[in-house]
Amino acid sequence: MIDRKVSIRYARALLGVCADKGLDEDEILKMLKELDAFFGENPQVLEYLSTYVVSTDNKKKVIEQLVNNEMLADFLNYVIRKGRFALFSQIVEIFEELVDEKKGRVKAIVKSAVELDSEEKNKLKEQLSKKLNKDVEFEFFVDGDLIAGIIVQVKDVVYDGSVKTYLSNLEQRLLRLSV
């Protein structure tokens, strides 16, 4: 919980620096996500940058090799000096949420029984964008456990239009009636 609060502070600070310097948040986010992916493939580098045993100067040299944006390098070196680099992935995640919120975007995960065609995807995007009054970015998945219908998750809200859930709810109502 404390780590998340700290990560939020760093992500907000980075967003503020981007605004102050007139930088494109999406471009910074892209660089951060590439770096996060690199750390995912090379966890020893993240561990090296997160440990207290390695000098700040040595860590700074690594950052210089990994990042070609001066502002971002300065930010990452600041995080290192404060001993918070282990929170890097969480900072990136929260920064992405803040950028999406600022730009009026939201991510939606769609599970369907069968692959949706492009017309169905466009109609869903149009309806959900209108309902949420935001630009919606979708991730589509086919879920073999669904009988028919779709389930859409936006942040913590789930819109369940699956036949499986409908039948389950119907069963519960029938059981209550028979008692």
Question: What are the SSEs and their pairings?
Answer:
Layout: H1 2-21, H2 25-41, H3 43-50, H4 56-66, H5 70-81, H6 88-102, E1 105-112, H7 118-132, E2 135-142, E3 149-154, E4 157-162, H8 163-178
Parallel strand pairs: 1-2
Antiparallel strand pairs: 1-3, 3-4
Helix pairs in contact: 1-6, 2-3, 2-6, 4-5
What does this structure look like?
It is a single chain. Helix 4 packs antiparallel against helix 5 (70-81). The longest helix is centred in the N-terminal third of the chain and has 20 residues, at 2-21. 64% of the residues lie in helices and 16% in strands. The mean pLDDT is 89. The chain has two domains: 2-101, Peroxidase, domain 1 (Orthogonal Bundle); 105-178. The chain has a four-stranded mixed sheet with strand order 2-1-3-4, sandwiched between helices. A hairpin with a 2-residue loop joins strand 3 (149-154) and strand 4. With 179 residues, the chain is an alpha+beta fold. It is elongated, with a radius of gyration of 22 Å.
Summarize this structure as a short list of keywords or feature phrases.
Peroxidase, domain 1; 2 domains; transport; 179 residues; four-stranded mixed beta sheet; ATP synthesis; alpha+beta; ATP synthase subunit delta
- Any idea how many domains? 2
Binned strand content: 15-25%
Overall helicity: 55-70%
Strand order of the largest sheet: 2-1-3-4
The number of distinct β-strands equals 4
Report the uncertain regions.
Answer: none
**SSE pattern:** HHHHHHEHEEEH
In one word, what is the shape?
elongated
